[in-house]
Amino acid sequence: MKKTLCYLLTGVMAAGLLAGCGQKTQTGTENTQPKDTAAGQTEASAQTEEPSQEEASGQQEPGGAVTLTAWHDNDEAMMNALADVVNEALAGDNITLKFEKKSDVSSQIRLYGTDAENGPDMYLFAHDSLGSFAEMGILEPVGNLISAEKEADLIPMTIEAATYKGEQYLMPVYYETVLFMYNKALWEGEVPSTTEELYDYMEAHTDTAAGTYALVNQHSNTYNVAPFINGFGGYVIDKDGNPGLNAQETKDAITYNKKFAMLQADGDYNTVTALFNEGKAAAIIGGPWLVSGIKEAGIDLGIKALTDFTLPDGNPMIPYSGVQCIGVLKYAAENKKEAVEKVLEVLAGTEAGVTLAKGFNCAPANSRAYDDPDVASNEMILAMKKSAEKAVPMPNIPEMSVMWGPAESLLAAVNKSGEDVDTAAEKYQKEALTAIQDMK
């Protein structure tokens, strides 16, 4: 998926849909979708003035004021709101959390992850980068910093996403999945409950010559096709780093997806988004990062979880999920442990989740946040929560970073060039194996 987790308006949302959450989840193929930015100010921690004695030593003075800096690549208004929750809760402890926006956070963490002077204490980023960071040895497992009791309300899928080789390194904050999103003014009747019924509707309501469509999707984008692949029992890569592009279940899913692709537009992000926002497509498969543009277009938006659609084999569609998590750098855990522990406890709590949901349309990792009436009435958030019960976290192993290219080349070969599925799958399976070997 050229993507990765969501964009937003900065106003407060009551029961309706006003904004998409934060930004799209980051993945190894994130450059297919543009990043929206919102006006907002963050306070940078790297200032030109001389550091205090405490900062220079990196040690946390007992009872002294402590500032933790967390890097992110997200909406600044949302990060400021999240920081406010933490800082208000910890004002009596003299602990301050500051979020600092960085472009290309994963590269910045790789560069400064062991630099106590110039690096952050923490970061908020998508979970699929975890494996690479863990292998670098720069992260402190959060299990050493927050008790299982304090994480008891976190949705299991988000904990799975934050875990690598049996160790929970990250603390989940919110998550996202792709959804079935439709224009209530254009969609006729009820949304189907099976993919075969959906296909029949597409055949009856699509006129490719006229450029009007029942449903558009990035049909050759791995993240967007993952609901078919996972639902058929296929996989892009398994937990041991073995590619699955030539697995029979994966090929069956790609073949099945192709018939939908033939009734859709070319499939790139800009094309399908424009078609939906301009009223030339009645529905789109996408996520909360699309909501800002949809609302600007004045569309009355309906939402359905993809897990509500049944495939021909009786299984549901199963999307990937991207989970935005807090990671803690080792030197911060060693020198500011007490402050880090307190910040993690607040971020894992209900208030942080409710703030993200009500103000920014995020699906909180904290399950108790859904007890709030406003959160419980949010159609999009509830659809993502329903999806979370079956969604597969994006693989967080290092090898996944080289899988997006071969996987999407396979999809494009089948959907756009008409290549034989078996032949193309063998070709790109070999390409994936070579790319993985080259990493070692």
UniProtKB/TrEMBL annotation:
Enumerate the SUPFAM superfamilies for this protein: Periplasmic binding protein-like II
State its location(s).
Cell membrane
Q: Name one GO molecular function term.
A: maltose binding
Chain positions covered by the region annotation Disordered = 24-65
- Residue ranges annotated as compositionally biased, kind Polar residues, are 24-60
Coiled coil spans: none
Q: Which GO terms describe its biological process?
A: maltodextrin transmembrane transport; maltose transport
Q: For this UniProt entry, what is the primary localization, expressed as one broad class?
A: membrane
Bilayer topology reads:
Lipid-anchor
Q: Which GO terms describe its cellular component?
A: ATP-binding cassette (ABC) transporter complex, substrate-binding subunit-containing
Q: Does the keyword Glycosyltransferase apply?
A: no
Q: Provide this UniProt record's keywords sorted from A to Z.
A: Cell membrane, Lipoprotein, Membrane, Signal, Sugar transport, Transport
One of this protein's Pfam families, by short name? SBP_bac_8
Signal peptide residue numbers: 1-19
Question: Which protein family is named in the record?
Answer: Belongs to the bacterial solute-binding protein 1 family.
Q: What is this protein called?
A: Maltodextrin-binding protein
Organism from which the protein derives: Eisenbergiella tayi
Classification lineage: Bacteria, Bacillati, Bacillota, Clostridia, Lachnospirales
